[in-house]
Amino acid sequence: MQFLTLFAVGVLIGSAYADAECFTRRSNECKKTALSEGAAEFELDICAYQKKLFRCLAEASTECGMKFQKSAEKVAETVENLCSKGTPLNREFNQHKKCLVKAVSETKCFRPIVESLIAEDKEESRKDACKQVNNVAECMAKDVARACSRLTETFFRYISRPVVDLHKGYCDELVFKNLKRSVHAEMPNFFELWSLAF
Which of 139, 131, 133 is nearest to 109 (CA)? Predict the structure, then answer.
């Protein structure tokens, strides 16, 4: 009976690792494809790049059976709506854009993540960066509230929540669980979504 229990646990761990390996492979392909298709044009269209990248990551998370697939899908939908002219989300973004861009580009909130990622121990640095996701998001929301308005802060929180949830799911499933197995998927930089604004 103990052997069966150990075998079942081993199968579950192996399955989780196989899912992580699948997502690692697919996410690396997503980033390369989105970049090469964008670079094929004379000018990289950030919206087109983001839409392709996040759609591909959502599909990869589904194909690989990742637990964060709903979060990945929500980010892909958010990017699609932000980038599609005339959608309610796009119109609202355009109302807040000037102040949001200024507040986000001047923020010092990323410093803890940057400091974590330049550490020599790459495994620990990824783990530390993952622990900072909520703090960075909250810091940025406060910066937006100070620089803009309460309405702009509410909008910022609405569009950034899916990205935060995706990164937390990514960290839980790929960084914390697979830290010693050196699984490193090409997840977009934290709040890469904000490159849409520039």
Answer: 139
Contact 34, 59 (CB under 8 A): no
| Length of the chain in terms of residues written | 198
Residue given tokens 């980038």 in the structure block = 83
Interior/surface letters 148-187, b for 16+ CB within 10 angstroms, e for the rest: beeebbebbbebbbbbbbbbbbbbebbbebbeeeebbbbb
Q: What is the pTM of this model?
A: 0.77
**CB 30, CB 60: distance < 8 Å:** yes
135: which 2 tokens? 């703090």
Q: What's the rounded Cα separation, in Å, for the pair 63 and 29?
A: 13
CB 132 within 8 A of CB 116: yes
* Tokens describing residue 48: 């087109």
Cα distance between residue 186 and residue 81, in whole Å: 23
pLDDT in tens, 65-124: 999 999 999 999 999 999 899 999 999 999 999 998 888 887 788 787 777 767 667 777
- pLDDT per residue over 185-197, tens digit each? 545 544 444 444 4
